[in-house]
Amino acid sequence: MSLNEVWEAASASPFQPIVPKDSQFFVGFNLLLVAVIFTGLFGLNRSFVSLASVGLPAAVLFGFGSVFMICAVGVYV
Amino acid sequence: MRFFTATVLGLLTSGVAAATNLTTPSRLALPADFKPPQVFKNTNLVRNTNLEKGYVRETVNVVVENVDKQPQTDYYIPFPTDVFERVGGFEVRDKKAAEKGRFKVDVTEAAPSSDNQYFIVHLPEPLAPKSQITLGISYSVLNSLSPRPATIQQSDKQYLAYTFSAYVPSAYQTLTQKTKVKFPSTNVPDYTTTSDLKTGTDPERKGATYTYGPYDTAKVAPGTKYPITVRYEFTNPVTTVNLLERDLEVSHWGGNLATEDRYWLRNNGSELSSQFSRVDWTFSNYQRAPTSAVREITYPLKPGSVDPYFIDDIGNISTSRYRPGNGKTAANLELKPRYPIFGGWNYSFKVGWNNDLAAFLRETTTPDSWVLKVPLIQGFKASEGVQYERVVVRVVLPEGAHNVRFQTVEGSSSNGLPGDNQIHASLSSYKTFMDTLGRTTLTLEVDSLTDEARDAELIVTYDYTFMDALRKPLTIFGGLISVFVAIWAIGNIDVSIKKR
Fold first, then answer.
1. ∠ at Cα B358 (B356, B361), nearest 5°?
2. So where are chain B's domains?
3. Which residue of chain A is at minimal alpha-carbon distance from B353?
4. Inter-chain CB proximity B362 and A17 less than 8 Å
5. B400, B394 Cβ separation under 8 angstroms
6. Is A47 in contact with B488 (Cβ distance < 8 A)?
7. Which region is the signal sequence (chain A) (predicted)?
8. CB contact under 8 A, B251 and A64
9. How far is A33 from chain B (nearest CA, A)?
10. What is the maximal distance between C-alpha atoms in chain B?
11. Which fold has domain B2-24+238-474?
């Protein structure tokens, strides 16, 4: 099967980004905002419970938020 | 726990895994005293030489007969060693069944005892004794036109000279042959006339087409030369790209295909005999008079292209205009270099733009496998043609992409490219923003192309799983959670001064 046939066979499934280009800034900014708030909350109470309940979500949100934010400013990673 | 292990392993394993169908062009070494076996005969040969552009484009249609007693598959096409490296986009098809695609072609190394190097055409099916096949051979020869006179005034007409042999170079006996030369205009002040090759006038002229022959060459030994020189008006730039570096960067997170083309240009036309005059240039530019300088570069882009830029070593060049089209029609980027590029002058610049990835990328029927279809060189559009001495295309795939395969798209006519086995392909890793292992990069290197390859398309398939995609956010997550854990752990250390 030539690769052109692979391309034709895949015509029904074009690539869909998780977040469209127009929404990247909105999504990235909000994820980062929540991440910063959660980080602040963790800073106020640095217990293990706080680490699990606030620090962990903050790290996850910061991970995804920073990826979308860098895409939103034109550095497509 | 399994998720964590998979994540850690995923972060540590290399993205550049087993890759297939990557080629390194190899050349066949021939014995020192090699001569192609005389198993074929060219019954009739017609060569069309097109000089309408800044390079030579030739198509040779030849009826080949097997004169041996055994079926034969290998047809040798010779070129002088000094010309061989400048032959680009070499392609051979069955003239009567062009839609069946090109034939496999190998190239040979230069042998010290021979003036020739060969393209070896492998016929898909052995040609039976006394059978015939019509071959359609097409190729371009770069840098074979010389400006005569070599220096001109700024607003003078430019003339190019081209020398070739009236007898088409062939490894086999040819019974009859002729050459049709197509000029850009009827202004051909000098051309060789032959007196002893055929009866009647030679060449025969019809408008801008001159026909040398037909000649009865049954008794002429293969390889015999009869030099012909033509000199014709070509008041256009002979645009030569010494090097084109093209980057295509695929981003799944951003849903974006970023393209950047870096050009090193040169005009190989007549040089200026006196100093450049800005006043004369402004006059002729205002009148839109024909000129041997590169005045403007028009760059057609795919529909939906956004964020174009045009910069050179100094910085942004403001003399550019972008016509974005309406989303369905092609966009146009019109560039004016900082200065007109006259003969012998160089100019380097880069242009870049973004596209939505959805138009170029599809998910195949196999899960986590993707197929990308992108223009191979695209390049700018010029009626006088552009020749590319070397093209390096880098397809920067997402970090973690593996099992990379590529193919150029073949149609029923020439796509201006050599066969895939003549394209040097390699995989490497390219580190840039937010990368841990580096992005899988497919690099394709091709020599001697022309703007015939503008419409050529490249298809790349690769595997890229959801875990590969998560590498970036998980890396950042890992960094931040480590900081939090460190803060919590350090905060728990009791450093108070008291009696224990």
1. 115
2. 2-24+238-474, 38-233
3. A74
4. no
5. no
6. yes
7. none
8. no
9. 15
10. 122
11. Immunoglobulin-like (2.60.40)
In a domain, A56, yes or no: yes
What is the nearest CA distance from B477 to chain A, expressed in angstroms?
5
For B77-95, how does the pLDDT look when each residue is reduced to its tens digit (9 = 90+)? 999 999 999 999 999 999 9
CB B238 within 8 A of CB B147: yes
Let me know if residue A10 belongs to a domain: no
Show the domain range for A53.
23-77
Q: Find the CB nearest B256 among A14, A16, A76.
A: A76
Its ipTM equals 0.95
Q: How many domains does chain A have?
A: 1
Question: Does the fold of domain B38-233 match that of domain B2-24+238-474?
Answer: yes
- CA geometry: angle at B54 spanning B51 and B59, to 5°? 40
Asked if residue A8 is part of any domain, the answer here is no
Q: Reply yes or no on whether the pLDDT at B9 is more than 50.
A: no
- Tell me whether residues A24 and B362 touch, CB distance under 8 A: no
* Reported CATH class of domain B38-233: mainly beta
Residue A27 within a domain: yes
How far apart, in whole angstroms, are the C-alpha atoms of residue B116 and residue B109?
Answer: 9
Can you read off the two tokens belonging to residue B90?
Answer: 């070499």
B427-448 pLDDT tens trace: 999 999 999 999 999 999 999 9
CB contact under 8 A, B251 and A76: yes
Closest-CA distance, B310 to chain A, in angstroms, reads 16
